[in-house]
Task: structure prediction
Amino acid sequence: MNTLIVALNSKFIHSALSVWYLKANASSPCYVMESTVNQPILSLYREILGYDCENIAFSCYIWNIDTVLRLAQIIKDARPNVKIILGGPEVSYDSEAILKEHPYIDYILCGEGEIAFEKLMYGDYTADGISYRTEDGVVVGSYQLVMNLDLIKSPYTDEMLDRIPYGSVYYEASRGCPFNCGYCLSSTFNGVRRFSFDRIKSDIKKIVDSGVSQIKFVDRTFNYDCDYTYIFLDWLKDNTGDVNLHFEIASDLLDDRIITLLGTFPLGKVQLEAGVQSMNPHTIEAVSRKTDLDKVLSNAKKIMDKGNIHLHLDLIAGLPYEGYESFKESFDTVYSIKPHTLQLGFLKLLKGSRVRSEAEHEFKFANFPPYEIICNKYLTPDEIIRLKKVEDMVDRFYNSGRFINSLDYLIKGSPFEFFEKLSCGMEFTTPPSQDALYEHLYKFADDENLMDILKLDFLCTTRNGRLPSFMDTTDLKEETFEYLKSAEPQCDARARYKQVRLEYFKSINSYILFDYSKQNPVTGQYEYREVNLKC
Result:
């Protein structure tokens, strides 16, 4: 029978790896449809029915489960004989309840579904890893793991690679995690399984040859094995050309060999994302996160000092024993090393995670996806709301990378307190424009000296030919041509003029030339330099 496998991603720029694994490992005819939860549900419904398949399978996550269930119901109403199959982390841990509450669902794959899906396609619904309904009730399938990953076929077919949006492909070199963090679904099973190195090299060579611009490794902890990581990174450096590489790591597991090797990669080729989560030892112990907090920061600082790698660090608000003041201390400590991105996230009490069942912490959370925390024994609802406002300011002003010099100038004490004060005086009813953010920060600071620093930040990150209206500017077209003829006599001045901007800065009584043909791939900043203007 024909089967349609549907992935409803959160954004158009995302893709789903799971559906392509299912298709690659099914011997019966399968089609893949990728769309987003932002598409009107009736439009999705019509597109799905247009495939005219006997089986429809959905990949279910916290961002799409509501849409999937609504779609499944109207599909069943329209085509009662169609079999509806669900799989993914949002249904693997409570398949019995879902089947009982939603009679239009026929089967649920529990855990890693490549083998169970193939068996189901040939009518074996009693196979391991499949939950199904009988006249006597629901039979719950056991959670399945594929222990020998090389037994499953690669999803990286020509069809899959041709449909990658924006040139970014997800890749897993391993499944599982060496840690047992209580808030993470990886805590539900132990150990790491990895594909053979020969399999990985074959996959990655094909991906690189397809012309993608980025490979995002989805391994929970890419660097869990230092010796293997070193060999793998050394191979990637020599065999991935200009493709950008993104990894999730545990920074405390990095050794000096790996850090030194990372420092030899081309500027901007590597992005690292590391979950710090908290700097409170009691909190880290409570969630069973095995972390050397001193090494977390010292190694992250070494990475930052290399200057060639974009570093993203995460904190989670709402963990056990982390009250408002404790979170402030965690934030300030991590901010001190100035990662390129500092994500302030909020605890999600995911189905299947250990912390969801720990009553002693008095968690209250939304009973719908993404199950985000409302309060607990350590944070009040109002404090969570205050942290949400701080998160918004950190994203807009710090993580955007557009205000780095201004923030360095303005933040004298606690960074957290600065963003907290900023959030009190800057609430937006509608998303502000970029220009408005610069003006808001200027008014908030009430400091004339900030004007030139804001101008510097704007011009080294924005190439649109104009400054916000509240900033002073001077037409320096003639001066720019004169400078280019003097400093770069070999260049075509007219062509070069379109790549640069000359601006006067009153605070230093001098001129700065911004070169928009040279952008730092790590920071996103354009190159600039002070010039001696003689004209």
Observations:
- The CA atoms of residues 252 and 298 lie 8 Å apart.
